[in-house]
Design a protein that fits this description.
The complex is a heterodimer of chains A (about 110) and B (about 190).
Chain A lengths: L12 H9 L10 H11 L13 H41 L17
Chain B lengths: L1 H5 L4 H11 L2 H22 L4 H17 L10 H19 L22 H6 L3 H12 L4 H8 L3 H19 L5 H4 L6
Helix pairs in contact in B: 2-3, 3-4, 3-5, 4-5, 7-9, 8-9
The chains are: A mainly alpha (about 110), B mainly alpha (about 190).
Chain lengths: ~110, ~190
Amino acid sequence: MRYDDREDIEWTDAERGALEALPRERVPIVGARERTIAGLRTRGLLGPSERRRPSAVWLAVAASVVFSAGGVAGYRLALSRVRHDADVARMRIASQEPAPAVAPSSDAHVVWF
Amino acid sequence: MRHRLELSTPDAALVQRIRADGSEAAFEVLYDRHTPRLLQTAWRIVGGAQHDAEDAVQDAWVRAIGALDGWSGQAPFGAWMRGIVVHLALDTLRRQRRFAEDTDVGVVDDAPDDRLDLESAIAALPAGYRAVLVLHDIEGFTHDEIGAQLGITAGTSKGQLFKARRAVRARLAPEPRATSTGSGGKA
């Protein structure tokens, strides 16, 4: 049967409404965009990544935080060593002091023959 | 802040930035704006094969960004992209030899009692008829445009649309068999 020999089929209002109600969009799978970007970059169609490159300001802030934290830690370490050395010296001094003299007992004599 | 501003940037300006310096940020906005629609179109044409649809959309973006000069700016960017996606989705069907435009789709005896939803009925069509129906009745292509995409005449496109609509209608509401009525059938 040729097309010209028959009547056309038109959708009813309900059928047309059902067609128009079909979803027009579909969510891509996770990672699809990154895969596409990688493919474009491989072909030289996109420039280098912009978003993942940290700015100089953020690098400076991060460096100063690390430097400050290092300074505080070093100061605490040094302080604890000074205290430790002071304690050790104090113990040494205490150990070098002469023992207190023991008074001889006068009523505890042992006589050997 | 720049990224947020680009969310409302017109397609033409985004394309200009990609042309100028290959801006990834501009591409991301363009991608997020158009991909869901492109993916749905590809998904319908390939009959619901998600992987094939994703591949067609990715290939379409690569092809489009590599040939941005081919977009004149007169037609909407989304429509231009949709043309590329449709072409690649049809290529997928051809590679898989699923594109058989002469297949008769007027027969519903293989599943006479099934009542399918519209999406399933469209997906169940042979690839060639499905493509014409999706492009004409859902995507709004003209028969001339469909003919150019499929390499057929506008008349053939109309004929395929007729068969596709008839098949979808039959699948959605199959008529009761004459033998089941016991009335001897219609005169």
